[in-house]
Amino acid sequence: MALDSRKKALVWNTLNKTRGKIEPAEYKNYVFGIMFYKYLSSKAQTWWQTHFHDKDNQAEQLANMQTELGYVIQPGDLFTDWQDAIKRNEFTLTQLADDLESFNQYIAPQAQTALTGIFADIDLDSSRLGNNQQSRTQTIINMIDLMGQIELDEASDVLGDLYEYLIGMFSINSGTKSGEFYTPHQVSEITAQILTSGREELSNYSLYDPAIGSGSLLLTTASHMNNAEKKSAIKYYGQELITTTYNLARMNLLMHGIEYQNIVLRNADTLTDDWPDGVVDGIDSPRLFDAVTANPPYSLRWDNTNREHDPRFKQGIAPKSKADYAFLLHCLYHLKSDGRMVIVLSHGVLFRGGTEHQIRKNLLKAHNISAVIGLPKKIFTNTSIPTVILVLEKQRQADDVLFIDASQGFEKVKNNNKLRQQDIEKIVSTYQNRVDVAKYAHVASMEEIIKNDYNLNIPRYVDSLEDTPPIDVKQLSRDIHQLDEEQRQLTKHMNHLLGELVGTDDEAQETLDLLKDVFK
């Protein structure tokens, strides 16, 4: 069984005690690295116990292990060997470094994309771990001891579950910038259920996230596919600019049991370095996916020069100050003709003018935009602004657009807002039913959208304001007369009290006379 909330909170509290002065944003690199090594080591240990019976044929066994798992961790290099060395007071950072280096040397050629450089963020010489070798060693020992307390079960997703929990906690506690790799699970749930709606039975499904972050959008989407457990039924593709986050995503996918053969992630800038398929010898043959999902950085500055011949941006080139539509058009370009995509952006993409207005108009005229879903503000850790989910398809026949105003459905949790289960269910069911819902949703015709000059601002289509009850004029008149009478009585009483007062000197009497004039 997965870890319950009490045990998760215990792990988090223990981590905070052991990290000392290390900032959470830095500390997570070590925690996740050691956690991931434990996961790989556990699989390797099981493999040795199951397969290794002939000590004279160890080379062949190593080759078999490398092919099956994609890597090799030999007896003596296992996580349990680290624990034993700690018990004997013999553990050193050199032992850990040597084991990580050995791991890198034995990565299978076909697993290079999934595993090469995945432990690069574990800097054992960093002063952040401690001021000297002894203190740095003790910090690592504390992490190993903590990870050793977590029992792994082959039939469960304990480590993956904990990993997702800690990603969220590190995001919340590490400041604004650290939140860029994390999409709240309730948002992932909405995008996943919309992406897979009516397609849950597909036996072959390719997922792509061009700003993959921690990989949670892909994992959540796959969890709603009925064939997700079948070997090679789902392929996971993604791209991430920040190397540390790219490593984090690979770990997250692998610790959720995704086989390395089904993971194709790239560490690159999505907007400047597209997938290598693209235009080859003048022929445009992009890699296409069944589903594309993204929560890219909002209003990012980008280099939009010389983009006129980039096939991704045929419908327009996003302004250099805001790359929102550049990400959107990139996603749409890589979508299969019968695929579906969702992208989370700021509300500005719905109504901003200039080039963005023209791109929006082109998308609407091509029937690409299927739904616009407004979310509450303060549901992301790295921004307080309200966000919007756009649902797009490549070759829709219908030209209407479903608008959903879900901005008021949430519960307040400390300084943030959180979508409840009923809020998620309402959004998804409204998307599936695609009918008007009073004060919540409206299916707008193209005629309506043209009348609004292709402005997609949600309040233009969904009036979510509550009706003001009619005013009872007669009762209002009675209330005013009653207040007037009460005011007259109070003034009369005040004048009576003031009339009985006499100033003790000329200045006091002058002040008293002024007060009497006020209440005449």
From TrEMBL:
Boundaries of every N6 adenine-specific DNA methyltransferase N-terminal domain copy: 10-146
Signal sequence region: none
MF terms (GO), sorted A to Z: glycosyltransferase activity; site-specific DNA-methyltransferase (adenine-specific) activity
Transferase keyword on record: yes
Transferase as UniProt keyword: yes
Similarity comment: Belongs to the N(4)/N(6)-methyltransferase family.
Protein name in the entry: site-specific DNA-methyltransferase (adenine-specific)
Source organism per UniProt: Fructilactobacillus myrtifloralis
